[in-house]
């Protein structure tokens, strides 16, 4: 398999920072092989030292956190086991701040916190905040602020800066569907149609911040990809 290229934002002795493209799995589903190139494939090929790093380096070399397949943005990958354990502990202690850019349908309040447990819908692979007979229900908290509001093609849209306080599967997408403001382009938790024909969610991990081993805070950003940037420029050009 030829590994798909992934933009590298930063290379440090103990870790690397990537800008994950949309449409790319972080790693193959557990116990299964994917014919598509993954972040794990790219990392193992470009940084062979990661093959011995992590809880399951054979499948997830150096990988500490994940993004959904169709979500783009910043990812940190460990090059040493010491850093892997350090950042893993930071996640466990809620010392990591991840910020996402999301475009959603509707006019959203300027600021808000969504505090709604998320569970797996019975007989489905979809998660929900309000389905009956949900399984594996866990608390989930998402904080957001509205960066801009737009009217385009007769519909309202809101550009949000989103900070999940917990790390549940599909959390941002499920939470905004739960308050009737689905993420634009989301094929599982949103409206299937949008004015741009976007076939993946307008959701981008724009920054991550965490403490280094010396206690200093480290923050890094990932540029918005072209497909989302183009939509945003069109929206801004139509503002009165």
TrEMBL record:
Gene3D superfamilies: Pseudouridine synthase. This is Pseudouridine synthase RsuA/RluA-like domain-containing protein. Keywords: Isomerase. GO terms for molecular function: catalytic activity, acting on RNA; pseudouridine synthase activity; RNA binding. GO terms for biological process: enzyme-directed rRNA pseudouridine synthesis. Transmembrane segments: none annotated. InterPro entries: PsdUridine_synth_cat_dom_sf, PsdUridine_synth_RluA-like_CS, PsdUridine_synth_RsuA/RluA, RluA_PseudoU_synthase. Residues 14-176 form the Pseudouridine synthase RsuA/RluA-like domain. Belongs to the pseudouridine synthase RluA family. The lineage of its organism: Bacteria, Candidatus Joergenseniibacteriota.
């Amino acid at each position: 398999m030829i590994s798909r290229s992934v933009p590298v934002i930063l290379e440090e002795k103990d870790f690397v920072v990537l800008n994950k493209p949309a449409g790319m799995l972080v790693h193959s589903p557990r116990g299964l092989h994917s014919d598509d190139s993954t972040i794990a494939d790219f990392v193992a090929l470009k940084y062979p030292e990661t093959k011995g790093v992590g809880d399951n380096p054979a499948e997830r070399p150096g990988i500490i956190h994940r993004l959904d397949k169709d979500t783009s943005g910043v990812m940190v990958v460990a090059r040493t086991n010491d850093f892997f354990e350090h950042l893993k502990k930071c996640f466990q202690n809620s010392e990591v701040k991840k910020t996402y850019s999301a475009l959603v349908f509707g006019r959203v309040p300027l600021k808000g916190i969504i505090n709604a447990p998320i569970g797996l819908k019975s007989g489905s692979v979809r998660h929900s905040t309000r389905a009956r007979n949900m399984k594996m229900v866990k608390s989930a908290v998402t904080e957001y602020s509205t960066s801009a509001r737009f009217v385009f093609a007769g519909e309202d849209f809101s550009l949000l800066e989103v900070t999940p306080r917990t790390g549940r599967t599909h959390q941002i997408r499920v939470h905004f569907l739960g308050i009737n403001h689905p993420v634009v382009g989301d094929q599982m938790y949103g409206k299937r149609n949008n004015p741009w024909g976007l076939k993946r969610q307008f959701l981008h991990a724009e920054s991550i911040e965490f403490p280094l081993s010396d206690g200093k805070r480290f923050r890094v950003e990932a540029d918005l990809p072209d497909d989302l940037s183009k939509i945003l420029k069109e929206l801004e050009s139509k503002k009165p």
